[in-house]
Amino acid sequence: LKQVFNKDKTFRPKRKFEPGTQRFELHKRAQASLNSGVNLKAAVQLPSGEEQNDWVAVHVVDFFNRINLIYGTICEFCTERTCPVMSGGPKYEYRWQDDMKYKKPTALPAPQYMNLLMDWIEMQINNEDIFPTNVGKCRE
């Protein structure tokens, strides 16, 4: 289990909402509704009086944290040797392109692809222009 939480590996610590902020309160509401066994459609509905962009931002960050945790538990079983291709079954192969190092879609081993993907998502989430930390300032 220590390998899963090794900071040098692909697992990243959860991104947290600062207590006392409106986003923290929205996060608590989202967690409470998802853990209460209620209708999922109702659980993700925008609470009255809240900004839709803020509500979406909270769920995007929560989703990233959950995917990151799941990936952290399986990454030791998928190595460059055991997973030489990032694929979605035999019919689909995912290729990485980022317009910096990989200017054209490039086949990569699954762990390398996932590391690049998780880094890219984390950069997006940490970008104040996309996910501002001040509530009510998300871009449209």
Describe what this molecule looks like in 3D:
The chain folds into 2 domains: about 20-75; about 80-130, no CATH class. Residues about 1-5 have low confidence and may be disordered. The protein has a two-stranded antiparallel ribbon with strand order 1-2. Helices cover about 40% and strands about 5% of the residues. By secondary structure, the protein is an all-alpha fold.
Record the SSE blueprint:
Elements: H1 22-34, H2 40-43, H3 52-74, E1 95-96, E2 106-107, H4 110-126
Antiparallel strand pairs: 1-2
Low-confidence stretches: 1-7
Number of helices: 4
Biggest sheet: strand arrangement? 1-2
Q: What is the first-to-last residue Cα distance?
A: 41 Å
Class of secondary structure makeup: mainly alpha
The rounded Rg comes to: 18 Å
* Helix and strand run: HHHEEH
Largest sheet, strands/sense/barrel: 2 strands, antiparallel
Q: Name the beta content range.
A: under 5%
Number of strands: 2
Tally of individual domains: 2
Helix content: 40-55%
* Average pLDDT figure: 80
Instruction: Give the overall silhouette.
Output: elongated
GO molecular function: kinase activity
Binding site for Zn(2+): 78, 83
Keywords: Kinase, Metal-binding, Transferase, Zinc
Pfam family, one: Mob1_phocein
